[in-house]
Amino acid sequence: WWRKTIQLGGYDEADFALDLGECYWRLGNRDMCVALISTLDEDDTRNGSFIKLWADLGEFDKALKLAEEKAEFGEPDSAFLAAGDACRLTGRYTRALEYYRKVVAVPDGPRDIKRNKERAAASIEAIQVFDDLNLARIPDGAYQSSSIAYNGPLHVAVVVKSARIEVVKVTKHAEKQFYSAITDTTARIIEKQGVKGVDMTSGATITAEAIVNATAKALASGMK
After folding, report:
1. For residue 62, is pLDDT > 90?
2. What whole-number distance in Å separates Cα of residue 200 and Cα of residue 123?
3. Which of 46, 93, 200, 223 has a CB 3.0–4.6 Å from the CB of 208, allowing a cystine?
């Protein structure tokens, strides 16, 4: 369908090439994805989707280079937020915190700056508890917390039993286009038995990020 859309014309071909490239990647053909998106020169997406895709592909240095260029072009909030997410994805938490702090330091302004600053602050708060999380120190029970998502706060409830995460459930949200993030992200957290290295759902990265951040805070609230 993305191919047909591009063939029809009349659209921003770069945006659709990015979406088609991600389809190739998600369907298991990395080479076709790289060949297609290598024709694109910059990230002009609203939320740094091009940066994220290169990071997902394991091209960390390329992702950060694009982020720095995007920041120079006048969008430091979304650029540094995407760079922080790329670092976080690869376990580079110290560097992720540096980028998130740059976002928080961006002066208030138009576009999504306020929301991006809130997201960065929430990620800082979550990362600061990542390394301290220890399921063996969390008594059996249900724990709740929230974090900022696309359209407002997103709330989760986490059930721990016998030092294992048994349930992660989104209990309240205002998202409209969350795709499969609410089910996929919670399932990934349970599978990994933690919040580190959880892949964010394509098309709903902000929602997935909020679930991870809220889960981290919920678990931290129960640690003894």
Report:
1. yes
2. 13
3. 200
Q: How far apart are CA 85 and CA 69, in angstroms?
A: 16
Please state, in angstroms and rounded to a whole number, the distance separating the CA atoms of residues 210 and 25. 24
Question: Dihedral of the CA atoms 25, 30, 35, 39 (nearest 10)?
Answer: 40
Amino acid at 144: Q
User: Which SS3 state, helix, strand or coil, does residue 151 take?
Assistant: coil
| H/E run at residue 23 | helix 13-26
CA-based nearest residue to 139, from 219, 193, 211: 219
Structure confidence by residue, pLDDT tens digits, 11-60: 566 668 888 898 999 899 999 999 999 988 899 888 898 999 999 999 99
Measure CA 81 to chain center: 9
**Under 8 Å CB-to-CB from 209, ≥6 apart: which residues?**
85, 119, 123, 147, 149, 200
